[in-house]
From TrEMBL:
Organism: Aerococcus agrisoli
Gene Ontology MF annotations: formate transmembrane transporter activity
TM spans (from-to): 24-45, 65-92, 104-124, 152-171, 183-201, 221-244
GO cellular component entries: plasma membrane
Lineage: superkingdom: Bacteria
Designated name of the protein: Formate/nitrite transporter family protein
Top-level taxonomy: Bacteria, Bacillati, Bacillota, Bacilli, Lactobacillales
Length: 250
């Protein structure tokens, strides 16, 4: 049975509340898992765009990336970009304090980075995936596209990215069927990847891999994550979370 839009805000806010009630250690572990899941989706995307030729290569690769968010939603994990919406909804519905909101966002962001960094090191370096991408020139091309953007472009790209990601999560929340959840989130997430929009957690994996390969510096990684993360907050919390909260909050 699907959930009506009028009830969806309360359900999503309740999910946000429960995320803040999880212990710090469990939140950290679930955040690390989310970083790994998103990184695995990015690996699938990179594998396609670096090894398949043709006019639809980017679209095919983009259609595989939602694997990461599917694992987050169905298997269960805490992802910063998704928490931008649902934890913010818990805040504006006065179920949690601003301190609880900030603490959750900060811990989840850190945990996502740890998981992404470990995946970039163990899978990227341990299995030679990063070096194969470097040899094809694809890794350098994609990373340069991310870090060469202006600060304003990074923020705007992050805004539109998380509008699409959070719409995917919002749609997935409207169904109790895991199969339906997968289908509902697939298109918005595929679109953001295909458009080349910037997702802070995906960038955590990409720029960590670039760090090991010598493509980008630590400062470039930090600047990108801060600015894209800010854009993700605006898009997920204030645009999607704020507008739906204004419309549906009882």
């Amino acid at each position: 049975m699907d959930i009506l839009a009028g009830d969806l805000f309360a359900l999503t806010a309740d999910k946000g509340l429960k995320k803040t009630q999880t212990s710090l250690w469990h939140t950290f572990l679930l955040s690390c898992l989310a970083g790994i899941y998103i990184g695995l989706g990015y690996i699938a995307y990179l594998k396609v765009v670096s090894s398949v030729d043709g006019p639809y290569t980017s679209l095919i690769g983009a259609s595989l990336f939602p694997l990461g968010l599917t694992l987050v939603i169905v298997a269960g994990a805490q992802l910063f970009t998704g928490n931008c919406m649902d934890v913010f909804m818990a805040y504006i519905s006065k179920q949690i304090s601003l301190k609880a909101l900030i603490k959750n966002w900060a811990l989840v962001f850190f945990g996502n980075f740890v998981g992404s960094f470990l995946l970039a090191f163990i899978y990227g370096e341990g299995l030679g995936f990063t070096q194969s991408l470097l040899a094809s020139g694809e890794l350098e091309t994609i990373i340069n596209g991310k870090i060469s953007a202006t600060p304003l472009q990074m923020i705007i790209s992050g805004i539109f990215c998380n509008i699409l990601v959070c719409l995917g999560v919002w749609l997935a929340n409207s169904s109790k069927s895991n199969g339906h959840k997968m289908l509902l989130l697939w298109m918005p997430v595929t679109i953001f990847v295909y458009l080349g929009l910037q997702h802070s957690v995906a960038n955590m994996f990409l720029l960590s891999a670039g760090l090991f390969a010598g493509v980008n510096s630590i400062s470039e990684l930090v600047i990108n994550l801060v600015l894209v993360g800010l854009g993700n907050i605006i898009g997920g919390a204030f645009v999607v979370g704020g507008i739906y909260g204004q419309v549906y909050q009882k």
